Amino acid sequence: MAELTCTLSPLVFAELYRLLLADRRIGDVLDDRLDEIGYDSDWLRDRADDYDAKWADIAALLEPATVHDYALPVEHSLLATWLLAGLRNTGDSYDLSGRLLDAVQRRMTSEAPLVGARPPSLSPVIRGWTLGMVAGALDPGLPMVLAHEPSDPHIAEAYRGLVEQVCHLEGVAEPWPELAGTALFVRTGGLAEALRPPPPPPPNRGLQYSIDLLLGESKPQAPLHIWERLRVNWIKWVARRNVLTHVSPDAVAGLTFAASAAQVRTWYQVEATVLGITQFICQEVSGELLDTVPAALSHDPWEYLQHDVMVWT
What we know:
By secondary structure, this protein is mainly alpha-helical. The protein has helices at residues 10-22, 27-35, 41-58, 74-85, 94-111, 153-169, 178-195, 207-218, 224-234, 237-246, 257-261, 267-290, 302-305, and strands at 124-127, 130-134, 144-146.
């Protein structure tokens, strides 16, 4: 599989920045964030216009087979993610994500010859105030290719593998082979434990400690109904994972290997698990970016990013 990179259409950035500018609740926080790299709201408004002009220049040229060729380099997604990370203490980002996707899809349908298509470069998603791109067509919000990865290279590599596995399963008829779903469970648990390693014994609650900590951190970062879905999904999650990896039944949880294996063979059965680890990874990224400016964004990044959106007349 070719490397997945968060390269999005200029339309995504035009609509995202206009949505941010229109939200009065975050105006002061957004201004402070922009000021950190020497910009202001007028600058952001001008950039939205630049991206919109670029979209107008290319929209009629787009075809399903070549639409990705018109996506912008990942540095544009990185800048947007850094701006979004500064808003992580203003609530959750699910509403913004939904409004962004709706705006992009509406304009794509009316202005580009891509009716019925959902190309990744025009499928943005925001989780935990981290911008990403939806790869494939298995789900409208997953799997999410990140614009910026966690600083731990092992976690970043493991998450990329998870995304690739979900993309692979798009082409596999359900019910999947049992090991396909089991692999998702094993990788997800490993990522959760790596994100928040449990302390050494005594006492040592192992992976459950990691999950409980991550769930607590995600409560302000997700709408209540989504958070409750995640909480319910993870109640017996460790026991299910352990039965899948160790095979022996769990008498306390009332789980057998056969019963657990039967629960990982469709996307519906594993979606909440993938959604959960995506949320945990994304809130980790925005947390890391909150007080850090990546080297690629230092020294006026627009000085070189602007060349990607120039419209030649």
